[in-house]
Amino acid sequence: MSAAPLLDSSRLRTLDGFSQMTPGASYVTEPTRAEEIAEIIHRAARARRPIVMRGNGRSYGDASVLPESVAISLARMREVRNWNAHTGEITVAAGASLGEIWRFALPDGFWLPVVSGTMRPQIGGAIGANIHGKNNWHAGTIGEHVTSLRIIDATGQDRTLTPADPDFWAVVGGYGLIGVLHEVTLRLRPVSSGNLLVTSRALSDWDAQFDAFEAASGADYAVSWIDGFRPGRGVFQSAQYVPSAEPASLRPEYQELPDRILGVLPKAKAWRVLRHLTHRPGMRLGAAAKYHAARLRPGETAMMPFTAFHFPLDYLPDWERAYAPRRLVQVQAAVSRTAAPAVFPRLFDLCRAHGIPPYLVVMKRHRPDVAVLPYLCDGYSLAMDFAVSLAPEDPFWTLYRKLVQTFLDQEGRFYFAKDLRLTSDDARHSVGIPRFEAFRAIKQRWDPEQVFDSALGRRIGLTMA
């Protein structure tokens, strides 16, 4: 680490979440070795400054933000430290992104077993948020594929945990509040092709959506893109791995997303164009066009590279900026299989009553996760994107409380990585008080001085600062 003072003004940067709603200035450090991390922890303790873990800033809210803190970024710790090309077990520094991992492993015939909708998160952040993908109902979360991890605790001690350790599942899904996760070993999935066979179907109502997910239980992936202006209507996609060997499709250059939209518009500038369409008429038209295009090709199956299917958010870099001067806010929660058919239409009835439609809605199938702080159940989730102004009196927040209460009334579980406004009572109700308090007890045992903190941790009561 640089010899510059820990609280030197040259380190001060304004950090924010993906929604750009929770800015805070922190003193950013970028260690390159575990020993430097331990040194930062000791220096922060002497300066009486809390530490917040900072990845690539893909959490929507305040999970990696805390004003006046010391932020530890592992952006310079991203190397592959061990690779077994026969078993697919890989050990990487926690700063490596999902994109860097698949680019390394795919030529040897291995793919990440769980990915989010973007390849940009660091693996450490992905494990801290315990991400899920479009295969969650059978593959689980990313944490279920981790075989060991190394974490530096509040005393500077470097410790190794495996799934057999009782505290493993507090680090996984613990949002960086237990210690500094700096190395990860996980097992990747063997593949013979870098393509998926993707079937798209236009569905007209909620019953058809639920039936499609249940019928696709044998698929490798499933997701539905719901029309926020005509709820229940949407485009359902299921995908299967290609069983035949296609070596050319395993090359990174085959998987790279195109630099231009429709072969014309540089994708780095696409958000500027999308900005002129990010309003109710434009988003209504876009959702309708997607639905009717799928209707014209009923049950069409197409070959699609892994990256094109998994990472739609990366087709448009900085796409969240298209919401400016408003901001992107997402509400994401899961409810049981029995509750979802009644809850989901009720959510959209609330949106309609308040005159605030969601611009993008994604529906997925799930199984329960096993973290100390669980956010999934045997059921379904909706992720609903809204355009919100920076004004605290924006009418969306009245709707937000009603959406939250509707989920909580059915024992819904919220994903804290996508959250901006849940209260401590909301969080306890969502997780369950015994598990919430179990996490706090583990946190207290590992970090009695509350060295590791975040705005999220303080807001929902996971930390005691």
In short:
The chain contains 15 helices and 21 strands. It is an alpha+beta fold.
Q: How many distinct helices?
A: 15
Q: Radius of gyration in whole Å, from Cα?
A: 22 Å
Helical proportion, percent range: 25-40%
Low-confidence stretches: none
Task: Write out the strand line-up for the largest beta sheet, numbering strands in chain order.
Answer: 17-12-14-13-19-20-18-21
Task: Give the N-terminus to C-terminus distance in angstroms.
Answer: 27 Å
Count of DSSP E strands?
Answer: 21
- Biggest β-sheet description: 8 strands, antiparallel
Principal-axes geometry comes out as: globular
Description:
A hairpin with a 4-residue loop joins β5 (80-84) and β6. Helix content is 28%, strand content 24%. α11 runs antiparallel to α12 (396-409) and α13 (424-431) packs across α14 (433-446). It is an alpha+beta fold and 465 residues long. The protein is globular, with a radius of gyration of 22 Å.
List the helices and strands and how they pair.
Layout: E1 12-15, E2 24-29, H1 34-46, E3 51-54, E4 70-73, E5 80-84, E6 89-93, H2 98-105, E7 110-111, H3 123-128, H4 136-139, E8 146-152, E9 158-161, H5 168-171, E10 180-187, E11 189-190, E12 195-203, H6 206-215, E13 221-226, E14 234-241, H7 252-255, E15 260-261, E16 265-266, H8 270-274, H9 280-295, E17 300-305, H10 306-310, E18 327-336, H11 340-354, E19 360-366, E20 379-388, H12 396-409, E21 413-414, H13 424-431, H14 433-446, H15 455-460
Parallel strand pairs: 2-4, 3-4
Antiparallel strand pairs: 1-2, 5-6, 6-10, 7-11, 8-9, 8-10, 12-14, 12-17, 13-14, 13-19, 15-16, 18-20, 18-21, 19-20
